[in-house]
Amino acid sequence: MISDQIYKFFSDYVYKHTGILYKDTDYYRLDSRINTLIKHFDVPGPDELFQLLAMEITPQTHDLLVDLFTNNETYFMRDLKPFKAFAKGLISSIKESGNLIGGIHLWSCASSTGQEVYSIQMAIDTFGDPNDLITMKIDASDISKEALKKAKEGSYTGLEVQRGLPAPLLIKYFEKKGEEDKWTVKTNLRARPNFFEFNLLSGNFPVSKYHIIFCRNVLIYQDMDNKRKILENIYQALKPGGYLVFGAGESMIGVQLPFEHVEIEGAWFYRKKS
Ligand SMILES: C[S@@+](CC[C@H](N)C(=O)[O-])C[C@H]1O[C@@H](n2cnc3c(N)ncnc32)[C@H](O)[C@@H]1O
């Protein structure tokens, strides 16, 4: 039996360090994570776990908590349409604006285990102009060290690659070595992204650096104050005329920033006003 005090201890810690909000009605979503910690620390139950962690949270335990309490759900070509529209139309619109010294600079700022950033590259190569990939600089970050490690390795199970990835793309961009159920992204796609750890709540955002920022399915876990704060920083990090790519169903509702909502090839994006 996990007491409310213990649930609150973990939800407060996670909120403070990641901005992810577990309301008391969501406490049941902490159960399996707390049970994983009980096994990890080899303690008899939640009370002993609480006593242990209330004393000290080492940097290693902090990383473990972040890895465990973030939701890394992702899949290849998630919602497909924005990836096609980005590769076919959004990139052309940036090229037409002429603001391209040093090539297009893109950031996937909650890239989880990498499916998003590899989908971005496959989409450009398949639906857009493959030459755009040659000069493009791609940054990819996440708060979770474990997710980043997997993203860098670019190795996925058969089940993971089946989610969202059409067979021709799987064959073109992945290689399967031996009998193991592991599909690894080919070296050229794996070599391009610059992966780094970045906390959207406390990280130091650059100024006017990016033409495109993918920030998909991460702000849905934040409260309105944090969402506003992160979006102000994303606004700052975009170049004038640069684009923000949200997940399906995400919007700027409740946030007052000079973005315009634009439709490109049937998908919606936010463009920073010039
Ligand atoms: C649900 S996944 C979305 C992944 C991908 N963008 C997509 O749409 O498929 C959310 C990701 O956001 C990351 N995340 C959560 N809070 C974060 C924070 N404060 N800073 C950076 N990343 C965070 C999580 O670790 C997780 O990998």
Structure notes:
With 274 residues, the protein is an alpha/beta fold. The protein folds into 2 domains: 4-69, no CATH class; 81-272, 3-Layer(aba) Sandwich (Rossmann fold). Helix content is 45%, strand content 17%. The protein contains 12 helices and 10 strands. The chain has helices spanning 4-18, 31-41, 46-55, 59-69, 81-97, 115-127, 131-135, 145-153, 158-162, 167-173, 187-191, 224-237, and strands at residues 105-108, 137-142, 155-156, 174-176, 183-185, 194-197, 210-214, 238-245, 259-264, 267-272. The strands form 2 sheets. A 7-stranded mixed beta sheet has the order 6-2-1-7-8-10-9. Strands 3-5-4 form a 3-stranded antiparallel beta sheet. The longest helix has 17 residues, at 81-97. It is globular. S-adenosylmethionine binds at residues 18-20, 70-74, 78, 110, 112, 116, 142-144, 147, 198-201, 216-218, 247. Residues 18-20, 70-74, 78, 110, 112, 116, 142-144, 147, 198-201, 216-218, 247 line the site of S-adenosylmethionine (SAM).
Secondary-structure element order, N to C: HHHHHEHHEHEHHEEHEEHEEE
Quick check: average pLDDT? 95
Bound ligands: S-adenosylmethionine
CATH architecture of the largest domain: 3-Layer(aba) Sandwich
Number of strands: 10
Estimated radius of gyration? 20 Å
At the fourth level of CATH, the homologous superfamily of the largest domain is Vaccinia Virus protein VP39
Query: What percent strand?
Result: 15-25%
| Structural class determined from secondary elements | alpha/beta
